[in-house]
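$ ./design --mode recover --in tokens.txt
reading tokens...
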């Protein structure tokens, strides 16, 4: 009887341990199955990601051969789907492309590519990538200078700063400061007495960890805009203002995408000093204009060409490129004069390129706090504000003496200048005597992704200037 009971207990134990074992086996099998499923899912996600990247690379190749084609060679609207086959493994999956771009005056300036990759093994897994394809432009910088420069202690710079010459950096910055030279001769014009050989970037500003020298020079000649082409675009599809027969034109942009032009019939001569030209008379102050002429900026070719000097101000809507130049083959270069604020109508999507064949000059009669939004290019001259004085034979008229000292200059965008820039002047003791006391320079990151038409490029190679995974929060 006891033996039978023992056998009964043994059977029960066997059944219990068998149940436990089977439960463990079932759990382990389920775990392995789930892990395998997760592994396959991750594999298919990665395949979808690789296929989406293949789509971006494919269209980059396509644009290298057909730079103005936004229809994948079909002449029709998208999306454009391509199957990807492995010679050994057969169908891997596909990518589907959505193509859009900014086209001005018949030329594509940048392309947005959306690529959706799908794995053939499991079409439920897709990956969406977005890339902006364009030439890197001057809009990637806060400043590009083609000479030695002294950045004052009051300057606050946001965005990369570059000079082909030496840089004395006494201001503060949050991005790289790069010089195209290893060393340079710092003279009294840059606060060195006696003259001294300095590193490509030196000074009391910083952080110095962001200083870079010698950096690869930027070919300033390559940055020059083809003014003859701009004139041709303006006369055929944009807005063209011929020689005024007077002093030039005052151009006032309006927030509705239009602008008004006024022939400048009178100016006031005053004395101003620049490091490039010394003391000379300038005519930056308008005393008389003719009646306004209203213009609507062309949406398809937003180019304005002024074959004369241009005073530019107002509120810009959309993307516009304006140039002041003399393309007659004789006579002096034409200049841009800034005597009032230039702002944007919208918080995003607007942009201005303003090109002076000679100098981009901030007038004596400018706001105490001045706002300048845009990309400002002094192609052969310099960007800045002359030095003015209230005493001596070169003094400005008493009625204008209050304009000699100004408070704040805010530039939001990019300054490209062939010559040394200057918007603040001090005496030998460091005392502020003319110009703007505080300068704040901030580059417009949005223009890096979608610059106005014919913004100068710093490279001939198209690159992805923006890459974003649409399936990951940004």
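writing sequence...
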């Amino acid at each position: 009887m006891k033996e039978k009971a023992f056998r009964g207990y043994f059977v029960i134990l066997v059944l219990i341990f068998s149940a436990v074992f089977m439960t463990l086996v079932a759990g382990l099998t389920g775990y392995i199955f789930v892990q395998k499923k997760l592994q396959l899912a991750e594999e298919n996600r990665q395949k979808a990601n690789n296929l989406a990247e293949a789509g971006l690379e494919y269209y980059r190749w396509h644009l290298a051969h057909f730079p103005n084609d936004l229809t994948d060679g079909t002449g029709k609207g998208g999306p454009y789907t391509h199957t990807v086959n492995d010679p050994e493994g057969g169908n891997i999956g596909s990518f589907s492309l959505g193509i859009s771009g900014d086209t001005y005056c018949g030329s594509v300036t940048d392309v947005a590519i959306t690529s959706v990759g799908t794995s053939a093994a499991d079409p439920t897994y897709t990956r969406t990538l977005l890339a902006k394809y364009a030439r890197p432009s001057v809009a990637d910088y806060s400043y590009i200078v083609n000479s030695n420069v002294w950045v004052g202690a009051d300057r606050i710079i946001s965005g990369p700063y570059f000079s082909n010459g030496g840089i004395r950096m006494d201001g503060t910055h949050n991005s790289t400061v790069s010089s195209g030279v290893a060393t340079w001769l710092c003279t009294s014009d840059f606060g060195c007495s006696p003259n001294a050989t300095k590193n490509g970037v030196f000074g009391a500003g910083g952080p110095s960890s962001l200083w870079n020298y010698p950096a690869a020079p930027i070919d300033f000649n390559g940055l020059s805009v083809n003014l003859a082409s701009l004139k041709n675009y303006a006369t055929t599809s944009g807005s063209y203002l011929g020689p005024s027969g007077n002093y030039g034109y005052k151009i006032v942009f309006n927030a509705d995408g239009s602008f008004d032009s006024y022939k400048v019939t009178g100016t006031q001569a005053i004395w101003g000093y620049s490091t490039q030209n010394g003391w000379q008379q300038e005519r930056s102050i308008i005393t008389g204009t003719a009646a306004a002429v209203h213009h609507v900026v062309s949406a398809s070719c937003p180019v304005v060409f002024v074959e004369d000097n241009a005073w530019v101000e107002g509120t810009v809507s959309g993307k516009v490129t304006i140039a002041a130049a003399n393309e007659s083959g004789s006579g002096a270069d034409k200049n841009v004069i800034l005597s009032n604020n230039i702002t944007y109508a919208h918080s995003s999507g607007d942009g201005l390129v303003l090109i002076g064949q000679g100098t981009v000059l901030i007038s004596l009669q400018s706001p105490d706090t001045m706002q300048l939004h845009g990309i400002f290019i002094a192609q052969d001259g310099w960007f800045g504000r002359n030095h003015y004085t209230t005493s001596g034979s070169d003094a400005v008229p008493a009625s204008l003496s209050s304009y000699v000292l100004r408070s704040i200059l805010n530039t939001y965008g990019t300054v490209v200048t062939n010559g040394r820039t200057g918007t603040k002047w001090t005496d030998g003791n460091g005392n502020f005597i003319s110009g703007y006391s505080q300068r704040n320079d901030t580059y417009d990151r949005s223009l890096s992704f979608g610059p106005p038409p014919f913004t100068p490029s710093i490279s001939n190679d198209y690159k992805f200037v923006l890459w974003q995974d649409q399936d990951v929060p940004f």
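exit 0
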